[in-house]
Amino acid sequence: MTDVVSSKLDEKEIEELNEISEIEGLDRSSLIRKFLLAQIQEYRLKESGERYRNGLVSMAEAAILAKVSIYKMMDYVDREKIQAPSLTDSEMEEDLKRSKKIFDEIK
Hints:
mainly alpha; about 70% helix; about 0% strand
């Protein structure tokens, strides 16, 4: 099921959308949808990246939360220069167990 969502834009914004629409070879509605979906994905990456930075989730868990592959999550973390806090050996072991459980659940 799809719903219609409307938004008010000023004349300059509409002109820009029309220009980009021509370049991309998409109608304006498709272009707006493409932009919106890209921003939703970026938002999910940012949110899960922050959880990873704060040590709340592992890289694998962050990828699952962001609904992307672990490789895409790794690229994002690298691009944004995100570093997780250092973990002790026991914390790493617990992290691995938790990640394995998550992967087993999604199989």
